Amino acid sequence: MNKTEELQYYFKEPKTYGWIEVKLTDYLITHIWNCINDAHGNAKGSLIGHVDKSLVMKDKNNILFDQVLKPMIKAYGNKWGHSHYKIGTITNSGEGNTYKYSLEQFWVNYQNQHEFNPIHNHNGVYSFAAWLKIPTDYQEQNQHYNAIDANGSFNSAFCFHYVDSLGSIATTTYEQRPDMEGMLLFFPARLNHEVYPYYNCDEQRISISGNVWMREPNVFDKNPLKISYIEK
């Protein structure tokens, strides 16, 4: 090697898993509102959210699953793979049974001021969350007395939490404001997340969430919603 020979170097990034943002169309938003209007059955018994109410929904004609969730599963696999969970299209040797993705749980949350959803993750393979109504503005909310001079702004926020390559806890914050209405986040079910409260607003925040599982054809899970949480 002489003095003029250039060094060869390469950038390496560790394998990790992200999530997908989807801006829902007006057609899909109308479909979700129709599902919300017909929601019934208390889902709170299996959810950790400290919110006014959570109701079980049905995805009518599988529109959300077919037009959003199935394409997102494929897109996620193309980008990051599915090795975060032992999933995919699986055939049992000798039996010929193919396991398929299925939207097993689907619910709507009604959240009032001061209410929150502590850090938690979900069961299943993939999960999603979307906002239908956000009556507050993140910037205004963080002018509230409890956020002034704080080292961080979390009033009216949705956050993902994960460990980075250096072993530190990292956070990605989604600021809750009206222009976030119609945004859907699609992520691995085990990804930790939480929802912070808002203040000085009598209107409710309305959001939906759900879990995608792997199931054998014609086998239906009769168990209630299964949500886990992590204590801080």
Structure, explained:
Helix content is 15%, strand content 31%. The chain has one domain (20-229): Sandwich (Jelly Rolls), CATH 2.60.120. It is globular, with a radius of gyration of 20 Å. The termini are far apart. It has a six-stranded antiparallel β-sheet, with helices on one face. A five-stranded antiparallel β-sheet has the order 7-6-9-4-11, with no helix packed on it. It has helices at residues 26-37, 63-80, 138-141, and strands at residues 20-23, 53-56, 100-111, 117-122, 126-133, 157-163, 169-175, 183-188, 192-195, 205-215, 227-229. It is an alpha+beta fold and 232 residues long. Strand 6 and strand 7 form a beta hairpin. The model is unreliable at 87-96 and 221-232 (pLDDT under 50). The chain contains three helices and eleven strands.
Number of strands: 11
One letter per element, helices H and strands E, the order comes to EHEHEEEHEEEEEE
Estimate the helix proportion, in percent. 10-25%
What kind of assembly state do the chains in view correspond to?
A: single chain
Find the CATH topology: Jelly Rolls
* Shape estimate: globular
Query: How many helical stretches?
Result: 3
**Strand sequence of the main sheet, in spatial order?**
1-8-5-10-3-2
